[in-house]
Amino acid sequence: MNRLLASILLVAAVTLPASAQTPPTQGWPANRPPAQPAPPAQATPPAKPPQATQAAPGTPPAGQQAATGTPPPVPLPSWFAEIDVNKKGEVTRADFLKYRMKSFEQLDVNKDGKLTVEEFLKVVEPPLTPDSPNKPPIEELRNRARTEFQNLDTNRDGFVERAEAEALVHAEFNQYDTDRDNKITEPEVRLIVQRSLQREAAERQQIEARRRQGMATLNEIIDLHLKEADKLDKNGDGKINQQEYLAQIGPADGPQAKNLLPFDLRKKIALNKFAEFDTNKDGQIDRVEFTAFALKKFLEMDLNKDRFVSEEEFKKAQEDEGKKVRALIQAMQPAAPPQPRPAPAQPRGGQPTPRPAPGLAPGLPQGTR
User: Fold this and answer.
1) What does the angle CA 136 – CA 142 – CA 146 come to, to the nearest 5 degrees?
2) φ and ψ at 131, to 5 degrees?
3) CATH class name, domain 215-332
4) Banded model confidence at residue 25, pLDDT cuts 50, 70, 90
5) Contact residues for 17 (Cβ-Cβ < 8 A; gap 6+)
6) Domain boundaries, given as residue ranges, for the chain
7) Has domain 18-211 been given CATH number 1.10.238.10?
8) Tens digits of residue pLDDT in 140-185
C-alpha cells in the first residue's frame, strides 16, 4: 500500500441492536429465531426474541444525566417490569416460570401438555411474532424454528413437553440469580445485562476490525504521505524544495536509467506534480501543503464515501493517475515530423510511362478525336 500511495501522492508515473438490550439467553420459549443468528459463545439455552427495555423507576431523564455527567444506569429488560408489578425490585422463581411459560400455553392448543412440531411452528406467526418491515420470509423463520424444536426436544420423542420447556426456564433463571436465593433482583439483572452489552460491543468491534482489514482512514493516508515526504526532506527543515523533490525521478543516464523515460521528460512530469503540491507557489512544499493534498486525494479515492479507502479504491485511483500521466507524457512529447509521400511506382523494365501527346485525350490512340 505504501508503494501505491507514493505513486498516487508523489510522482505517479514513476446503532446498538435491540438484542443487546437483554442477555442472549432467554430460556423458554426460544420461539422467535433471530433475524441474524450469531454463533453462541457457549452452550446455553436458545435465545428468545429481543424485548424492549424501559428505564428503571426514578431514573433521571437523559438530558439531566448528561448535564450532571452521571452515566445512565444499565437498562432493565421489559420482562422484569412486567413481572414485578408490585415494584419490589425483585422477581421470584415461580413468577419468572409463570411468565415465561405463557407462550407455551398459547402454542399448546389441545392442552395436552406437550407441543408437536406443527404447534411449535406457529411461534413464527402473529401474534407471537408480529409482522415488521424487516421480517425475514416465513419459510426461513419456519426452518429456524424446526432446528430450535430439535434442540428443545431433549429426549427426542418428537414433542416438546412441559418439563423440557420448564427446564430451560429454570436454567435461564439461574443465570440471573447469581446469589442462588431463588430471587432475581434489579442489581443482578443489571449486572447480567451489562456483561451482555460489553460482550456484544466487543463482538461488534471484532467484526468491524475484520471489515476494515486492508482499508485506510484519512489519518493513515496523511501519516503515510508525510512519511514519504520525510524521506525526501534531506536537510530536515520540514519542507521539500524542487531539488529534493527531483531526487526521486532517478539518474539521467547509466544502468539505473535503463527502461526509464528520458530524463528531461521525467523531470517535466515531476515538476508538474510539484506544482500541484506547491499551492502558494513559493518553490517549496511544507507539511501543511502535503496534508492538504493528502486530504484532497483521500476524498477523491473514497468513492463510496464511507470514510475508508479500500484496496479496490486504491487500485482505481492508481489507474486514473496512470491515465492522467500517460496523457501528460503524450502532450509533452514533440510531434513526429510528417513522413514524405512515396514516389509513384515505375513500370517494369525501368522505362518511364509515356505521356500523351498535347491535344489528345488521355487513353485514346493517336489520330483519333
Assistant:
1) 140
2) -70, 145
3) mainly alpha
4) very low
5) 50, 200
6) 18-211, 215-332
7) yes
8) 999 999 999 999 999 999 999 999 999 999 999 999 999 999 999 9
